[in-house]
Every structure is written in structure tokens, then in C-alpha cells.
Sequence to fold (121 residues):
Amino acid sequence: MNWYLLALKKYAEFSGRSRRKEYWMFVLFNILIAIVLAFVDGLLGFTTQSGVGYLGLVYSLAVLVPGLAVGVRRLHDTGRSGWWLLISLVPLLGAIVLIVFFVMDSDAGDNAYGPNPKQVV
Fold:
């Protein structure tokens, strides 16, 4: 939970680096919260005719900027520019490339985006 909160505390911080654990814990908690909110939306009838839940929509909008920020910092950790997030606009292939980048290990030592977060205490 601390990793999720860390990403939220760095709400709109697009500089620096984020470890794999910070990124993937943020993703995991977002998925779990989305599942719970979808259940609550369905239970309370807070869904549109297209099946979109209002609580889930509000939550998605609330974590949009922190999600982009932690993604950019994760790319920085692998030595890539945050602009690589735009490759997700390419159907299927873009998502696969981003997942590969997100699971790669950190650059050893310092890179152009700052010190290695694994070595900073």
C-alpha cells in the first residue's frame, strides 16, 4: 500500500525515476479498486446504459495524472523519455512494447533522469 500512496504523493511529478515495484503496485491497487468500484456501481445502480459506472469513472479521472506521472518516471528509470508513452496509441503493438519497457530492470547507477532509486536510501 505504501508504494501506491507514494505514487499518489508524487501526483504530478514527471521528473525523476520510479522503481518497478512502485509502478506495478500502483497498477495492482488501481485494478483492485476498479473491481470493487465496479461491484459497488452495479450494486447501487450507478451505471449508465452503456455499462459505465459513475464511481469508477470518477476514480479513473482522479488517478489519470498520477498514472501518467508514475509511467513517465518508470520509463525514465529504464533510460527512456516519457514521450514513449505515446506508443500506446499504436493498437496492440504499442501496449506490448510499453509492457516490455515497464518490466525491464532499472539502469544501473545514475542516468540522465537522476540517481537509481534502488540505491537511494
User: Anything to note?
Assistant: DSSP finds five helices and no strands in the chain.
